[in-house]
Design goal:
By secondary structure, the chain is α/β, with parallel strands linked by helices. Helix content is 37%, strand content 18%. It comes from Asanoa ferruginea.
C-alpha cells in the first residue's frame, strides 16, 4: 500500500514520474491525488464545441461523423480530415498530415477525447494533429481505457506532453494501491455539516459513480479548503488581538475636536459611524486591525486623518504609508491644507496647540530628509506621510501609535512589518482600499481584519457619465470624443487621457501582447510617450499638455502634478499612476485609450478621478474590441453603472479565482483548486463559524495535530502571506 507522501517514481516508473514533475509540478502521490479533474464529460452529452475560443488548448469529447483522405494541393502527401460532433450541433474538424492510417481508428460512430489547440481555417474551427483517446465500443473495456469506461469521464488540467488520459491512467494506478487516507477533520464537524469522509471524497472525485457522488466529494473537498483558510485567518486574528498595544483613547478638547469644528463641510453619516468604530478600537489595549473600504471619493482620507489626530491627542504619532511618491506628496498637501494652522505648530502662523506634518520620500534631498527625520524622531511631527522610504534606517519614530496603509495590496507583508517594528509595541493598523470588496472576498482574503464600509458619497460630488467609444466600428465617435474634450477645456475645465503603456522601451514594452479574444494577434498597447505628441499635433493642438508616468524622476512627477492641480495644464496624458488618490476637482473628462486592456476595478478607480468638483464628470472608454466580445461586454458593464460593489462582483466573475486566492503562487498542494468565492459564499460562511467555534475551545489546535498539519499543507507560509497582503 502507498501513502500520500510516497514519490510517484515508486509507482509509475522514472519516465512518467519525470514528465509529471517537469510539466505539472506533481512529485508525490498526494500531489497527484489533489490534482483534481477540471470537468467531467459524459458520453452522449455535448462539450459545446461552438463555445471554444481560437487559440485555446482544449480537450473535447465528441463522436466521429466522417473521415476522408485527400491529396494536399500545395505539397506532396495526403491530408486526413475527420469531422467530429458534440451532440448539440457543434462541429470540429481534425486534420492529420500524412497519417492516412489513422482513418482505420477514427471510424464514424466512435466516441473519443480529442486534445489540441483550436485554430480556424476558412471559418471552420479545427484541431491540427490532435492527441486523442478513443473510448471503448459498447461492452468493450480494456485496461488502457478503464478510467473512461464509466458514465462520467474526468478531464484533467493537462500539458501537451502529458494529456488528460495519461493523468487519468496514473491516478487509477495510484488509487488501486493507496492506503485509506486519515481524516483530520473533527468528527463533530463532519457530522454537523454532513460531510463525506476524506478518503471517500478523494476517491470519488476521480472515479465518481454518479453526479450525486461527485457533488458530495466536491463539497467535502471545498469545505477542507474553506476551513483551512478560515482557521488560518481566525487564528491570526486571535493572536494579534491578544498582543498588547498602548490604548489611544479620544480626548474631549484635543486636536481632533478642534479639527472637527473647523471642517468646512459636514461629515456624512457613514463617516461619523466609521469614526465611532475606529475610535473605539484605538481605545483598547490590543492593536486595531481594521479595513476601511469605500467608493472612490467617499471620504476615507478624512476618516483616516481623524483617527491619526486621536492618536496624536493621546501622545503618539501616526504614519500614513502611500504606494507612490505622487500620492504621498498629494496626501501631504491635502492633509496640510485640511489642518491649516493645526498642522504648522512652531511656525509664525501655526497653532501652538497643533502638531506638525512631515513628508518622507526617497527622492528628497539630504537636507530635507534630515530635517524630516529629526521631526519624526523627536515627536514634534505627530503626522508622518511617506512612501516605503519610511521603512529605511534613519527614520526613527518617537512613539508610533497608528499605521495607516493606503491601498494595502501595493505593499508587501515585509514592508508593513518593517514599519510596525519601528514601534515599541505593535501599533494600531488601519488599511484603506478604494476597490469595493465583495463579501466573500472580504471574508476570505481580509478575514483577519474588522471591516468598515463607506458607501455614501459626500455632498457636492457630481455624477459621472461613462460611454464606450468603439474606435474601429465608428471612427467618427473617436473624433467626437476629442471634440468633447476640447469643449470641456474651453469651458475652463481639465482632462485626463490614460494609456496602458509608458513607451520608449519600458520593461513592459518588450512583452508580447496577449492575443485578442478571437485569438488573433494584437498590436502593442498605446503608449503615453507616443500618444502625447500625436495629440499635440492633431486633435488637441494648441492645448497645454503634460505627461505623467512612473519612470519620470520624482521631482518631475511632483512638478507635473502641481502644474496640473494649479490649472497650468489643460490635459494630462498619463498611465495608471493617476489611478489612486489624485484629486483635481477641476478635471471633468477622462478618455481611456485601449480601455479593454484594463480590469473592471481599475477602470472604476480611474473614472473616480473626474467629477470630484461641482461640475459633472465624463469618462469615455475607447476600444477596438468588437461588439459582442467579452472585452466589449466588460466595458459596457462598466459604462452602465457607477456602483463599485456591483462592478467588484463582475470583476470577480470575470477574473480567474486564482488571481484572488493566490492559486498562481508556487507550492503545489497549497493551491485552492475547488473553492469559488462567487459560488461558495454560504459554505465559506459556515466554515468560518466552525473555525471560530473550534479555536474558542482550542486556539492552537493542540488537540487536533492532524488538522493543523493538513492546514499547513493547504495554506502554506506563502499563501498565508498572500492572504495577509490581500
Amino acid at each position: 500500500m502507498t501513502t500520500l507522501d510516497d514519490p510517484l517514481k515508486k509507482l509509475l516508473g522514472d519516465k512518467t514520474a519525470k514528465a509529471l514533475d517537469k510539466h505539472l509540478d506533481l512529485r508525490t502521490v498526494g500531489d497527484l491525488i489533489y490534482h483534481f479533474p477540471r470537468r467531467y464529460d459524459e458520453r452522449g452529452e455535448h462539450t459545446d464545441i461552438r463555445s471554444l475560443s481560437v487559440g485555446e488548448d482544449v480537450t473535447v469529447l465528441g463522436q466521429v461523423r466522417r473521415a476522408t483522405t485527400r491529396p494536399m494541393r500545395q505539397r506532396s502527401g495526403k491530408l486526413l480530415e475527420v469531422l467530429v460532433e458534440d451532440g448539440a450541433g457543434g462541429v470540429l474538424t481534425l486534420t492529420f498530415f500524412n497519417q492516412a492510417w489513422r482513418e482505420r481508428d477514427l471510424r464514424p460512430g466512435r466516441w473519443g477525447l480529442f486534445a489540441g489547440k483550436v485554430t480556424e481555417f476558412r471559418g471552420k474551427r479545427q484541431l491540427n494533429g490532435p492527441d486523442y483517446m478513443l473510448l471503448g465500443d459498447e461492452g468493450e473495456v480494456s485496461d488502457e481505457i478503464e478510467e473512461f469506461a464509466g458514465a462520467l469521464i474526468p478531464v484533467y488540467p493537462a500539458a501537451g506532453a502529458v494529456p488528460t488520459w495519461t493523468i487519468a491512467r496514473c491516478v487509477r494506478v495510484v488509487l488501486d494501491t493507496l492506503a485509506p487516507v486519515e481524516d483530520p477533520l473533527p468528527a463533530t464537524v463532519r457530522a454537523t455539516r454532513h460531510l463525506s469522509p476524506l478518503d471517500t471524497a478523494l476517491r470519488e472525485i476521480h472515479r465518481p459513480g454518479s453526479r450525486e457522488d461527485l457533488h458530495r466529494a466536491r463539497h467535502r473537498l471545498k469545505w477542507d479548503e474553506a476551513f483551512a483558510v478560515q482557521l488560518t485567518l481566525v487564528q491570526r486574528k486571535r493572536r494579534s488581538s491578544a498582543l498588547p498595544a498602548r490604548p489611544r483613547p479620544a480626548t474631549a478638547d484635543g486636536l481632533l475636536s478642534t479639527f472637527d469644528t473647523r471642517l468646512p463641510y459636514e461629515l456624512t453619516e457613514g463617516q461619523r459611524r466609521v469614526g465611532v468604530e475606529i475610535a473605539a478600537d484605538l481605545a483598547t489595549p490590543h492593536p486595531m486591525h481594521r479595513l476601511l473600504q469605500g467608493e472612490v471619493g467617499s471620504g476615507k482620507t478624512v476618516c483616516a486623518l481623524r483617527a491619526m489626530l486621536q492618536v496624536v491627542d493621546a501622545g503618539g504619532q501616526a504614519a500614513l504609508l502611500a504606494p507612490t511618491e505622487v500620492l504621498a506628496a498629494q496626501h501631504f498637501r491635502g492633509i496640510s491644507a485640511l489642518l491649516g494652522p493645526l498642522g504648522r505648530a512652531g511656525e509664525l502662523d501655526g497653532d501652538p496647540a497643533g502638531t506638525r506634518v512631515a513628508l518622507v520620500t526617497g527622492s528628497q534631498g539630504a537636507a530635507a530628509r534630515r530635517a524630516a527625520a529629526a521631526e519624526v524622531s523627536t515627536g514634534s511631527a505627530g503626522l508622518v506621510i511617506g512612501t516605503h522610504a519610511l521603512l529605511y534606517e534613519g527614520v526613527e519614530f518617537n512613539d508610533l501609535g497608528l499605521v495607516v496603509v493606503d491601498e494595502q495590496h501595493r505593499f508587501g507583508v515585509e514592508q508593513r512589518d518593517a514599519l510596525r517594528a519601528k514601534a515599541d509595541q505593535p501599533p494600531h493598523t488601519l488599511v484603506m482600499t478604494a476597490t469595493p470588496i465583495p463579501r466573500t472576498v472580504a471574508m476570505t482574503v481580509y478575514g483577519d481584519l474588522e471591516v468598515s464600509t463607506l458607501s455614501q458619497l459626500p455632498g457636492g460630488r457630481s455624477p459621472i457619465a461613462s460611454h464606450v467609444v468603439p474606435a474601429s466600428d465608428k471612427p467618427a465617435f473617436l473624433d467626437r470624443a476629442w471634440r468633447r474634450l476640447r469643449e470641456e477645456v474651453e469651458a475652463g475645465h481639465q482632462a485626463y487621457v490614460v494609456c496602458p503603456r509608458i513607451g520608449d522601451g519600458s520593461a513592459t514594452d518588450s512583452e508580447e501582447p496577449p492575443p485578442d479574444d478571437d485569438g488573433s494577434a494584437r498590436r502593442p498597447p498605446l503608449a503615453v510617450t507616443e500618444v502625447a505628441p500625436l495629440l499635440a499635433d492633431g486633435p488637441l493642438h494648441g492645448l497645454r499638455i503634460g505627461v505623467l508616468h512612473g519612470r519620470l524622476p520624482a521631482d518631475e512627477k511632483d512638478a507635473v502634478m502641481r502644474s496640473y492641480a494649479a490649472g497650468d495644464l489643460d490635459v494630462l496624458v498619463a498611465t495608471t499612476v493617476v489611478e489612486v488618490g489624485v484629486d483635481v476637482p477641476n478635471a471633468t473628462v477622462m478618455i481611456v485609450l485601449d480601455a479593454d486592456r484594463f480590469g473592471v476595478s481599475q477602470l472604476h478607480q480611474l473614472r473616480g478621478r473626474v467629477g470630484r468638483g461641482s461640475a459633472a464628470g465624463l469618462c469615455l472608454l475607447v476600444t477596438e474590441a468588437p461588439e459582442g466580445s467579452p472585452a466589449r461586454e466588460r466595458l459596457d458593464a462598466v459604462a452602465s453603472t457607477t456602483d463599485g460593489f456591483k462592478l467588484a462582483e463582475l470583476d470577480l466573475e470575470q477574473r480567474h479565482e486564482g488571481d484572488v486566492l493566490g492559486a498562481t503562487q508556487s507550492g503545489r498542494r497549497s493551491h485552492l483548486r475547488l473553492l469559488s468565492l462567487r459560488k461558495d459564499a454560504q459554505l465559506i460562511g459556515e466554515a468560518r463559524l466552525e473555525a471560530i467555534a473550534l479555536t474558542d475551545d482550542d486556539p492552537e489546535l493542540t488537540a487536533h495535530p492532524a488538522l493543523a498539519q493538513s492546514i499547513a499543507l493547504l495554506v502554506d507560509e506563502e499563501r498565508a502571506e498572500y492572504l495577509e497582503k490581500g
